[in-house]
TrEMBL record:
This is Sulfite dehydrogenase. Residues 21-167 form the Oxidoreductase molybdopterin-binding domain. It comes from the Bacteria. Pfam families: Oxidored_molyb.
Length: 204
């Protein structure tokens, strides 16, 4: 077994497209990203604003909760943590709700958003991200199952608690670590623990 492949996954050379509902079609000129909620400096970015920031190209494996993995996928975009440094999260911020065009949502911990390989990706294998893959801009969160890599991202709302997104409300795991096979939620969601962590977070 390839040590890069999480338990319960199989490797494919295909790159399936799985989407709930219709595919939104957002022109690059119309696309906007908001970073809001518990931040000192809310941001509203255009596509050109995103391209004007430092760009990162990286190759990561992509793991779907439906048990397939595609290895060595190359993306280009902007590190989410760079945008969060601009927005300056408030001390009580511990999680985020990510919202997409079309109404999709997913939740992430702030610590996950701050990892160096979490991107707002606009390029896939050297080409602009097509709409069916989440273009013009999607999240890439390679250390979690792919439903956390929200397509057509439009808003990041920082919160002092865990607010479940679309699939999480339907029973998917609140975090989704493929190495722990966190596919479905078993037991209570630790919202109270996260709120407690926010209240006791040390001052910057």
């Amino acid at each position: 077994m390839d040590p890069r492949v999480p338990p319960g996954q199989f490797v494919t050379e295909r790159f399936p497209i799985l989407t709930y509902g219709e595919t939104p079609r957002i022109a690059k000129e119309a696309w906007r990203l908001e970073v809001t909620g518990l931040v000192e400096t809310p941001l509203v970015l255009t596509y050109e604003d995103l391209l004007a920031r430092p760009q990162v190209e990286l190759t990561r494996d992509f793991h779907c909760v439906t048990r397939w993995s595609r290895l060595d996928v190359t993306w280009k975009g902007v590190r989410t943590r760079d945008l969060l440094e601009e927005a300056r999260p408030r001390p009580e911020a511990v999680a985020a709700l990510v919202e997409s065009y079309g109404g999709y949502t997913t939740n992430l911990l702030l610590e996950d958003l701050l990892r160096e390989d979490v991107l707002l990706a606009h390029t896939l294998f050297g080409k602009p991200l097509p709409p069916e893959r989440g273009g013009p801009v999607r999240f890439l969160v390679p250390h979690l199952y792919a439903w956390k890599s929200a397509k057509w991202v439009r808003r990041i709302v920082l919160l002092d608690h865990l607010e479940l997104g679309f699939w999480e409300r339907l029973g998917y795991h609140w975090r989704g670590d493929p190495w722990k096979e966190e596919r479905f939620q078993e037991g209570p969601v630790p919202a109270h623990r996260i709120r407690f962590a926010a209240r006791n977070k040390p001052e910057r």
